[in-house]
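Q: Fold this one first, please.
A: Sequence and structure below.
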Amino acid sequence: MKNKEINIAIDGYSSCGKSSIAKDISRKFNMIYVDSGAMYRAVTLFCLQNSIIEKSKVHKTKLLNSLNNIDIKYNYNKSLNISEIFLNGKNVENEIRNKKVSNYVSKVSQIAEVRNKLIKIQQDICSKKNVVMDGRDIATKVMPDAELKFFITASIETRAKRRFDELNKSDEMVTIAEVLNNLNDRDNDDINRKINPLIKSEDAIVIDNTSLNFAQQNKLIFNYIHEARN
């Protein structure tokens, strides 16, 4: 008997490993993976490239006037088995991960018009089912009818160490204190923004991976998915 197609929503804090989890689910269960946070990073990159962010300030009017000039698409890379994000026709998968984008993405994502534009794109993608998507408001706003919802969390110290290791592997030298401060700021922005803040959906399964390795975490999550698909 064929397994039924479902949508899976994954929410949680920055640097909890949401994207890694979603990618593993995508490979294991042959699902379409969408990193919603990458969309907000792509808009932030556009802002940095077009002088919409200057002197640590996001110029909202400039951004709103430019929204129609921002085209975001996902293309599936068969050789790497991942979906890569394109900004106005250019692959920006690597550019959107740098420290400067990380410093401003929460500010950009607080703007209602930006969220409305990107949520529409996200909902169009998941309307056909068989999608696993991670972000901050996937279960509560983008896919409230998802058959399976996870909320990923970990201690901020654990998250900072993971992000620190990731950045230094890419030769972007930062201190652990800088990473910790950035995560604290992003958590504050995500939780306290007026538009679609980060909250746990009432029917979400909480996964605290502070003390779990990837194998332990995946085994736990995969078991829930097997049950939902059967």
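Q: Good. Now the second chain.
A: Here it is, same layout.
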Amino acid sequence: GLTLISNTKRKIKNLLDIGCSNGLFLDLVKKKNILTYGIELNKKEYKISSRKHHAECKSIFSYKSKKKFDCVTMWDVIEHIKDTNKLFNKISLLLNRGGLFFFQTTNAYSLASIILQEKCNVFDGIEHTNLFSLKSINFIAKKYSFKIKKISTVISEIPIINNYLNYENPYLGKNKAKKILNIIDEKKLHKKLLGYKFQVILEKQK
């Protein structure tokens, strides 16, 4: 994620990580001489992250900042937030013009989710309150005045798919094949944006 953001060639002076956990990602960011800020609801994780970073124990919707950010990140958090409309409005307010919003989230139309369907871990009705597709990301970007800088996928789930196709438990099987039906490898899968998770970089336009 940090490599993807760096490759946009935008100068980043400060960064806010929403759901920063124990600050592991912020530790990497800080090494790049970037001012690090975080939000974390888990009190134990927050206490760890606050030792090295400007972290607060609160939700994104109650978070207030006098400064605006060059970059806001969310690692596997956005799918747990119910009100996407409220979230994107808040992030837009927190970003400088031209600022970057990076998020990683599950892909509702990954090859694994298409093949496994209800057996795929993507469809967790308890924790995953919002699911994203290429179509919905394009719609959101346009609605909230963001330009898509980069969309890629990670985690092929090829072993899991092969377990399922071999009539085994998808997540407990032992298939180690590196291709699906000896046709689809990781490179082809990610080229078609069919990986298990999206990594998205949006740029604020207004």
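Q: Anything worth noting on the second one?
A: The first strand starts at residue 14 and ends at 18.
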